[in-house]
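DATA SHEET
Item: assembly model
Revision: 1
Owner: S.N.
Input lines:
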Amino acid sequence: MDDTINIDQLLQETMVRRGQWLAETVSTNSDALSLAGDCSLELPYLIGADRQTGGRGRGKNAWWSSAGALTFSLILEPDQFAIQQQQWPRISLATGVAVGECLAAVVESSAVQLKWPNDVFLQGRKVAGILVETSSNAPGRFVIGIGINVNNSVDEAPEEVQRLMASLRSTAGHPFDRMGILSRLLIHLERELILLGEAASEQLDRFRERCLLTHEFVTVTNPNEEVSGLCLGIDDDGALRLQTEYGPTTCRSGTVRRCEGEP
Ligand code: BTN
């Protein structure tokens, strides 16, 4: 199968206005953040790579991937999609919905779940991660980094990653068309960003339908606090609702751990 990414085709089929695809880089998000301050850039701008040597995840996490994965970043302005500033925190959730639904169209749909805020799981293991960043050099611009384990195999991953990750190829037992998935994903993402601009509540309903955490006992950690409780789902602002021993509470950001062995 031809596994190359054709930027010209993406320019024709999707919202992307300019882009480049590299054989290898350290991190497409770092590249995108360096480029984002350039006012002459036509947006959305896509930068992708067949291999990242230092992929970054949320917080202090690294993002491991090998050849066959899809790793890329988009530079865009929420204004292009009429997304008001109060909706900016939901860009990562909207991206999660786009990635989840794109993957659900190519594998068994019910096996794809979303772990708040924006991890995508396949058969209970993480298949895709999203890192949304901004830079003070590029006010009003966002970098949306997406990593999807498509044709890279779980067996090639370091042991500590293998237990946690899924790849489309390892799950389905056959390779996938990366270019087709990327093009379809960019179309899904444009639609979700437009819906976010319209403050469409049904987007959150679609997140809820695939929510991995609802009815699970979880711990949410962020720099200021750690909160544990039963996950009640996602509220209308996209925040995570928990029933704790002190009463109901809402988490707007953080890393979530599922607590095994809880009642
Ligand atoms: C996470 O799950 O913590 C987020 C992972 C995000 C990985 C992608 S791969 C493309 C882009 N470049 C990076 O360095 N990170 C993101």
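QC remark: DSSP finds seven helices and twelve strands in the chain.
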